[in-house]
Amino acid sequence: MAYIRKNAATLTAAEKRRFVKALLEIKRRGEYDEFVRMHIDFYVTDGEGGLRTAHMAPSFLPWHRRFLLDLERALRRVDSSVTVPYWDWTKDRRAGAAPWTADLLGGDGRLADRQVTTGPFAYRTGDWTIREGVTSGEYLTRDLGRSRDPIELPTRAELETALDDPVYDVAPWDSTSAKGFRNRLEGWSRGSGPSAWRTHNRVHRWVGGAMLGGASVNDPVFWMHHAFIDLCWDRWQRRHGGPRYLPATPPGPGNAQHGRIVARLEKLPPWDVTPDSLEDVSGIYRYG
Asked: What is the C-alpha to C-alpha distance for residues 129 and 114, in angstroms, rounded to an integer?
């Protein structure tokens, strides 16, 4: 039977406790840091050579869907009632709203060094030390809304622009794709400043701190954000009658993307799965 991923704003006190406890347990076991390392390893940009799977590529959505499932399975080995909640940043847009509460993710970082000092993932509790990252800092950091150069979370109207696009992705299948649902949702743009970050990308920027860059998994909000991105993919499929992942076949020799992106029926590293196999997960979970 499919289980339900709930809106973080609707979680009961008991559901919050169970979710937090399971996260802290897999962190204690060292499992959580393996997820951080994996995301760092697969954070490959357009400018780097070789295969891109997690970002700036059509497989952005199925890659993170499988990544979420792996994390969720780890949590459910601790407590079978736990699922990953999603953060709907089109509705819960304030630093004091869900999920930024003391009984869930804690709040903003302090002004001096952006260190998170509230909630169960504060460094002072001793339960959430950063061991894998791109800097040497050991504590979780946030800068909700970017206090010195404020930006806003994406609006519902901005998200609708992505959801309205009927095509999954288009050439050149990277961060410069001007059309296609995938990049409209992932949020790469040729603009400058805040206009360069749309939808998914702007949320990472709005949270700031640890959520910037390949080590963003160090902030547990990463999972809630990507659960909502995954929900958006599900909504897009339903809205347009189940359109398929593109490209259906790999770009041929001579194409700049030859060997650099994953086609529908190709294996999606680091797993033995294809994007095709991840398009329908209704038998595993659904959103409530």
From this structure: 15
